[in-house]
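Hi D.,

Good news: the full-assembly prediction came through. Inputs first.
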Amino acid sequence: MCIRQCAFEGHSYDPEKNEVISKEDVCVGCHRCVTLCPTNALTIRQTPLDFRANANWTARAIRDIIKQSETGGVLLTGMGNDRPYPIYWDHLLINASQVTNPSIDPLREPMELRTYLGRKPERLELDGNGGNYRPKEPLPPQLKLETPILFSAMSYGAISYNACESLARSAHALGIYYNTGEGGLHPNLYKYGKNTIVQVASGRFGVHKEYLDAAAAIEIKIGQGAKPGIGGHLPGEKVVEDISKTRMIPKGTDALSPAPQHDIYSIEDLRMLIYALKEATQYTKPISVKIAAVHNSAAIASGMVRAGADIIALDGFRGGTGAAPTVIRDNVGIPIELALASVDQRLRDEGIRHQASIVVAGGFRNSADIFKAIALGADAVYIGTSALIAMGCHVCQKCYTGNCNWGIATQDPYLEKRLNPDIATERLINLIHAWSHEIKEMLGGMGINAVESLRGNRLALRGIGLTDTELDILKVLPAGR
Amino acid sequence: MKRIFVKEEVCIGCRLCEIHCVVEHSKSKNIIKAFKDENPRILPRIFVEEKGKVSFGLQCRHCEEPYCLEACMSGALYKDEKTGAVLHNREQCVGCWMCVMVCPYGVIRRDLNEKKIASKCDLCLGKEIPVCVARCPNEALEYREV
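Then the structure:
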């Protein structure tokens, strides 16, 4: 069974010896064989090939040079930055009420997690009298989320159709949204359009009238956290018939998105595209703009809001990807925690924070990370890798090969069957329910009963093990003060 | 009357159904002992048919009017009144294998050790859920009312 389950051909049967033998050097550590073995006979260990201990010339550094000398190529990898840069979420602590403010029990009292994403008006003028008030002007279009979590952009092509279907169905059941990524939208998924955010990326894959009409919101992708400054990459092995049709590109060709959007070379161009999309959809859908978190994110975000974006999506350097050059993934971009704090602060300082909602992404692992992000100013959080892990991913980082043994990052129909959309949908629903409940517990513990009271409330956090500069950027007091 | 149905679009051809069928019908009910120590090894009652990317597990359909029952010359095959399952009495079987010839699904296998039929699904004899259904890792088998 392990023989059949490994797409990397790690196990094989030797009829002479009547034994199953394993090829250690091709194992990617995806745990498929381990999980399915009925006798728990398998386990995975790092192959013990120790180079002499050297903090500078690590095994990885040496192996990468050897590989590049052999091939002359760019080293590719999948998923998010795995280097040991600091994780600021692990240096932020949450408050709880004691004595001065009673805590609230989420199991016994109502708590509000509902979140609206979109441009909020400068002020609200109400018409009417008695108990019956209505706003004078219609509100700008909003996205309504039952909980402040959405599924991040993962393109059809990078992930399988079954994976896309699971994301769509669970978003629909949970009352949240999922993002198509730059792969276009498969016709069978149009029925979940009300829970779909479609992406208009630099390759404009699959962008046509019906695509824009079907969605609840449109996201212009300028960059993504895993590879700021360069475009998306879908290796040719994964461009099969259905992908070719949905993306509108020839079969078997590498789908390399251009680095910039070739009609956006300045902030004024961005404003033109935002308004072109607003006109095309009769101003009925919020337009989101997604950027990677880079050095001057605050200034860029300010420009984006003034250009007309209703939602800013910020993707930190831990964001995942199906395929990216390793050197870019591991070295370009900044942590989302710092980017979020500086963007939120800049928009508040300029008095335009209400003009756009901020959604953050990039390596959110649990409900505490999400809670802290909201406290730092986020309206909602996009989760990508976490959603894939819920569906079975073990983060082996080999998505770009198309040999995903879990049926997620593959277009091979034999492998794709392994992802049963019924099971995956249920697991995603379970995950979001669990996290929403945990967020309620943390809110209640702080004595607040609405996520709105947490949003941007830096006083709810304290920093631990951070330098003065980092505390200043995050605008968070040190624990003890 | 509940029967086992397969969803071939999610069957991954892993054959865990066959493995757990063997364990359930073994003497020790322990997977290591059933496969390593028990001799002769029990045959599974479910068979995974596979060609290219299509695969599915197939077992006795427990037909309303079974051909095998009519063909059985010793009366070893009989219908259980409560569940409607077609069951097999090993003591009465003479090993003529007419049931094997006549089954339109080919789900009866010959036991070459004792020269009698060995494997035919028995719906796990009254268990709440047959083990193949319970242990399929991708929920490709369903146990439901006809």
